[in-house]
Amino acid sequence: MSYAVVSDLVDEERHAQQHRKNASVELPAQVFVEAIRLAETIDFAPGSRFQESAIRTLGSFELHPALLLLSQWWEQNRVDGRLMKCGYAMPWVASGDGRYRCGCHQVPNESMAIFERWAPSIASVGNQVIVEFYAAQTIDAFNEREGLVIYHADGQVVGHSGASREALESGDHDEAWYSLLALAAFRERFPSAYAVIALEAAQRSLE
């Protein structure tokens, strides 16, 4: 066996170990696949029935069935201190180079290692995917200097949105929108990861 192959195997095992450290609970494959199906089939674009029926305000996209499914699952299975109510979630896929690719194409890749400190708000889906759970958005988390403070479900600050108060209150900016984009595009953007998860979901349904 060549040194290059040995090195690759060592890296692969190190990445697998890091992946396991990055989550506090396992999200069933069938739940994740159903969330993807709901995001694909229930249109949330401007002018859609979902958008027309929703009250446009901060967090209105958290009411989409795909995100409600994930958030409700998290509330029933979370192992943190339940500090904040969950509102939406974002998938990430391991890329094989020690980084995750975000489900939303607008977000850059991130090192796998940085997610370990956020494990209380993360679920894994098999050996390649994690789902990051965020607290429901509230205008109370807005300040003029930083914008909207974004929290993980366990209360840790993740970052800030630079959107204005007006954009938030009107629903013109909603972080959950990006989660829906990620779920709706997951099958197309990550076909190999989806195939593995879908197969597991199908096998589980037969048990």
UniProtKB/TrEMBL annotation:
What name does this protein carry? Phage protein
